Amino acid sequence: MLFSPAYLSPFSISAPDQDLDNLKTLLRLSHIADPHWENSHKDGFFGIPRDVLVNSVDYWQNGYDWRKWESALNSFPQHKITIADGDDGQLYTIHFLEHDPLPCSVPEFLPLLQHVRAQPATTTTLHATTTY
């Protein structure tokens, strides 16, 4: 296998206003079925429960602040690196944060896992959390 140079470049998240406006328009135009037997089950056996979908769409339309999260993510140095596969020359671009790496072994994750396990059971769908 041959090695080829990798090209590092700075990166920041910047969603165009038009894309965010389009998302809000699509959410506003989305038709959510009227309540019926299949979409009223909280266990999700027949798909996403209607109330979870309604709450998720409302959150994405009215509650989620993309620019706030974009700013938070951009507060960390970020880069992209383009590397070429040594076998066929295919180019791959990888995005990463320039920060201390995440824990890399199970013992380092244990405190987080113990915290998550101690929380009430929840179902998370489209960034809206519903506790059953």
TrEMBL record:
Domain (Epoxide hydrolase N-terminal) ranges: 9-113
An MF annotation (GO) of this entry: epoxide hydrolase activity
Transmembrane segments: none
Record keywords, A-Z: Hydrolase
Pfam family, one: EHN
SUPFAM superfamilies tied to this protein: alpha/beta-Hydrolases
Record has Hydrolase as a keyword: yes
BP GO terms, sorted: epoxide metabolic process
Cited PANTHER family: EPOXIDE HYDROLASE 1-RELATED, HYDROLASE, PUTATIVE (AFU_ORTHOLOGUE AFUA_3G08960)-RELATED
Family, similarity comment: Belongs to the peptidase S33 family.
UniProt name for this protein: Alpha/Beta hydrolase protein
Organism name: Apodospora peruviana
Lineage, top ranks: Eukaryota, Fungi, Dikarya, Ascomycota, Pezizomycotina
